[in-house]
Amino acid sequence: MAFSTLLHSVSYSGSWGQTRLSVDDFVGKAAELGFHGVMLMAKRPHLSVLDYDAPARKALRRLIEQSGLQAVCIAGYSNFTADLEHAEIPMREMQIHYVTELAQLAHDLGSGLIRIYTGYEHPSAGYLAQWNLVVDALRECADRAAPLGVTIGIQNHHDIAVDYRSQRDLINAIGRPNCKPLFDAWAPALQGADIVEAARVMAPLMPHTTIANYQKRPRFIYEPEAINYRAATPYAQAVPIDEGFIDYAAFLAALREGGFSGTVAYEICSPILGGGSIENLDAYARRFLKFMHAVE
Questions:
Q1: Which of 77, 83, 109, 125 matches a 20 to 30 Å C-alpha distance to 91?
Q2: 54 C-beta neighbours (distance < 10 Å), count
Q3: Judging by DSSP bridges, how do beta strands 228-239 and 4-8 pair with one another?
Q4: For the chain, what are the domain ranges?
Q5: For residues 242 and 253, what is the distance between their CA atoms, to the nearest angstrom?
Q6: Taking the domain 4-212+246-295, which CATH number applies?
Q7: Does 225 have pLDDT greater than 70?
């Protein structure tokens, strides 16, 4: 069975100095390249809830449908442990409201899925307190999204529940049928985990995954007193899908074996080799589609 492919609009957002397309132009680009759908960045300069009122949402949905795109995922940006040092600020409520607005946005665009994150570990509270905060917040988000027919998808990006076993534990703790993991290979690959085993574990639970590939560039800090260098954390350099260290052929095969039948999005979410020209961005996206056809 072929995977359904999405292109993430962050790739053409200008966020790292690359070419920026408007949301409308991006939708046309995704259709032109041959993707089945789009993953839309839910913040400026793209699909901000501050900028898209009811008429704008209706027009965008019409454009997506006229472009022949079949799937839409809304990419939200949350951090439920932010600003814990200021307890008087209702930061969690603000973010729950943001996610609720994303659910309405998804519904208006004909989408049933939004992607969000958990939280970065914060020095102002212990791990268990932050875990419980995240669980409670995500449970409320799911409850508020449920009447709209929208699933809250949690990507393993932030510190809380970034390990795949912890992510599975988090989903079980939340205990809502419309809250699912959007597990991807990037984090576990960088952590040195077995991404094939992880994929087999997570595949039955997940409706979507996001893909990008990297090469590790060694970094060193010079120490004059030793007349030598100290190894630092390697830099992850984004490269075409088939040139990085993450074995996506094995990862996708394990997902399929585990029963995954959801969507696969490609993203360019950091500076890439060759620069951010429209030609290079398009070349990376086409390489991804060629790769996906080869592994189907």
A1: 109
A2: 8
A3: unpaired
A4: 4-212+246-295
A5: 15
A6: 3.20.20.150
A7: yes
Other residues' Cβ atoms within 10 Å of the Cβ of residue 208? 24
Residues in CB range of 188: below 8 A, 6 or more apart: 156, 163, 164, 194, 195, 198
Whether 281 contacts 268, CB under 8 Å: yes
For 175-220, how does the pLDDT look when each residue is reduced to its tens digit (9 = 90+)? Answer: 999 999 999 999 999 999 999 999 999 999 999 999 999 999 999 9
* Structural contact between residues 133 and 119, judged by C-beta atoms closer than 8 angstroms: yes
* Residue among 3, 74, 1 nearest 36 (CA): 3
Mean pLDDT of the chain: 97
CA angle 209, 176, 157 (to 5 degrees): 35
Check: CB of residue 253 under 8 Å from CB of residue 295: yes
Tokens 């006229």, residue located: 66
Q: How many helices (H) and strands (E) does the chain have?
A: 9, 10
pLDDT tens-digit profile of 101-136?
999 999 999 999 999 999 999 999 999 999 999 999
- Identify whether the C-beta of residue 69 lies closer than 8 Å to the C-beta of residue 35: yes
Q: Distance between alpha carbon 215 and the CA centroid of its chain, in Å?
A: 19
Q: Which H helix or E strand runs over 257? A: helix 248-257
pLDDT on residue 2:
84
Q: What pTM was computed for the model? A: 0.97
CA distances from 224 to 79, 101, 218, 232 (A): 39, 53, 19, 16
